[in-house]
Amino acid sequence: MRVMDKSQIWATIHAERKALAADLEGLTEQQWATPSLCTGWTVRDVLAHMTGTAEKTTLNFFPSLVANGFSLSKLQNKDIKRVEATGDVLGAFKGAMGKSTSPPGPTMTWLGETLVHGDDIRRPLGITYDYPADAAAAVADSYKATNLVMGSKRRIAGVKLVATDTDWSHGDGPEVRGPMMALLMAMAGRAAAMSDLSGEGAQTLSAQL
Fold first, then answer.
1. Based on the number of CB atoms within 10 Å of its own CB, is 67 exposed (0-12), middle (13-18) or buried (19 or more)?
2. 87 alpha carbon, distance to own chain's centre
3. Could you give the CA distance from residue 39 to residue 109 in angstroms, rounded to a whole number?
4. At 161, phi and psi to the nearest 5?
5. Lowest mean pLDDT among 47-51, 55-59, 197-201
6. pTM for the whole thing?
């Protein structure tokens, strides 16, 4: 099991945000409008969501949630519209990417959001990126035993996940092998990641996403 202290987690989040911003420089309007791996959200929407999350603190989160009728989806959509109204989503993201604040929750949650949403954006755009496998493994360790938020425990039942780029595995059953980041994306319910995975358990995992 990977162990990262809070300072390491935030340093990785900041580095990953910076790398994502660099990858998105010079996108065309058509590229910004590309559907992401998040159903119903474009690439622009996902980055706006990430910006809104980076701007949240424990103190401002709860009043915002109350103002949106305790609906997290309404809060997220309002944040997306607010950030997009600036006319410069990438600029807004850059302005927030160095923050070490977040809504309530384990710090590892925000590393997971940063990695998963980074691939939600890059993969549909055809942007290749070398994700930190150890960080992805640490997030996977936080996902594997719970169905909260991501529902990962249910998705990966009955198969053994084996990373090919770092020393990480989990589960029992027919194997699903591939890069750690692809395994993490599958755990997060992204069917597009299955193209990077193989093994006797791949069909079972695919059917459970």
1. exposed
2. 24
3. 20
4. -90, 130
5. 55-59
6. 0.95
